[in-house]
Every structure is written in structure tokens, then in C-alpha cells.
Design goal:
This protein is 21% helix and 16% strand. It is of the alpha+beta class.
């Protein structure tokens, strides 16, 4: 499955992302080009051992992007999905990050 298949999946009603207001100070401190897209990822510590029956709090990874690598602000959903379907989307890190970088913002 490509990334575009995952983007198109319906969101489960029992999953709620909270804390959007916590993102505002991060965006307010940014001094670079206007932020036109963000990525959110859920990660686990690399040395975490998963055992049956135990739950773990994921970390939230945040990436900020501008229109420099891809015209997010003018893109339609179809444009975004088409770019995601590529082996390497325009905004993907290529050795000199197309985004502003990412930060682990905890859980």
C-alpha cells in the first residue's frame, strides 16, 4: 500500500487528537517562511519492548513545511494524494530537509 492509501482511510470515531492549542506557541516562535503544512506521526522509543497486554504512550512527532518544496497552500486533496503516491514526495527529506525539521513534542 502506498501512503496515499493510508491518507484516504476513514478516521475511527474513538480516536481523538487533543492539544491543538499547544501547537500555537510552536508556530508563533517560528521565524522562517510561512507554515503551510504539518505532519504528525506517532512513534515509540526505539528500544521499547512490546509485551502482550501492556499499553504504551506514543510520542508525537511534528514536522512543519512551507510551500518551498511543494505548493501545499494551493494543492487540492487530489494533488496531495498524487504526490503522496510517488516513491519520494517533493517534501520528503533528501539530505537537506525540504521541511523545517521535526520535533518530538512528547505525549
Amino acid at each position: 500500500m502506498t501512503l496515499s492509501h493510508y491518507i484516504a482511510l476513514p478516521v475511527r470515531a474513538d480516536i481523538v487528537l487533543e492539544g491543538w492549542d499547544d501547537l500555537l506557541p510552536i508556530l508563533a516562535e517560528w521565524e522562517g517562511p510561512p507554515v503551510t503544512a504539518i505532519t504528525l506521526g506517532l512513534t515509540s522509543p526505539p528500544d521499547l519492548v512490546f509485551e502482550a497486554g501492556q499499553t504504551h504512550e506514543p510520542n508525537l512527532l511534528l514536522g512543519l513545511y512551507s510551500d518551498e518544496a511543494f505548493a501545499f497552500s494551493g494543492a487540492s486533496k487530489a494533488d496531495l494524494l498524487a504526490e503522496c503516491a510517488k516513491e519520494i514526495p517533493a517534501w520528503a527529506w533528501d539530505g537537506c530537509s525540504a521541511g523545517f525539521g521535526a520535533a518530538d513534542v512528547g505525549h
